[in-house]
Amino acid sequence: MGKKKPDRKAKELHLGSLRAHVLVCSGGNCATKPEQKNAVKGFRKRLKERGLTKRKGGVMCTTVNCLQVCGGGPIAVVWPDGIWYRDATPENLDRILEQHIVGGKVVGELRIAGPKKARGVRTKSGSR
Ligand code: FES
Predict the structure, then answer these.
(1) What's the domain range around 104?
(2) What total number of domains does the chain contain?
């Protein structure tokens, strides 16, 4: 067991007030390992640049082994919206961030499942 108490770490990560939690597969065969790794690395970097990590209303990205779609990957799902995306390359994840998570408009051509509408989030600068 880690030294930090889970409730303290949860508070530090603002888990109770995240705008979105994005899960990206990184263990199966829907894309190459470098493609999966680069997607997550690029997305996390972008989240930091946009000031969307570790804050109220922020965005968290977590890798999972496989999201069971196993084709056209990397696959990503944005919670709590429940919208699933194919081809989650760094460029497309950036689009998903700006258009969907920040702007509130689902990226239709990448969406493979889930509602057609999303919520938006206000950034620190107040822009959408
Ligand atoms: S490995 Fe990506 S969904 Fe299965």
Answers:
(1) 18-113
(2) 1
pLDDT on residue 22: 98
Question: Please, which residues have CB within 8 angstroms of residue 38's CB and are 6 or more apart in sequence?
Answer: 89, 90
Residue 120: the pLDDT is 63
Q: Which residue has its alpha carbon closest to ligand 1 atom 1?
A: 28
Sign of the alpha-carbon torsion through 18, 6, 2, 54: positive
Q: Evaluate whether residue 29 is within a structural domain.
A: yes
- Compute, in angstroms, the gap from residue 36 CA to the centroid of ligand 1: 10
Ligand 1: residue of 67, 85, 87, 112 to mutate (most ligand atoms within 8 A of CB) is 67
Residues lining ligand 1, Cβ inside 6 A: 25, 28-30, 66-70, 73-75
pTM surpassing 0.85? Answer: yes
Which pLDDT band holds residue 1 (cuts at 50, 70, 90)?
A: low
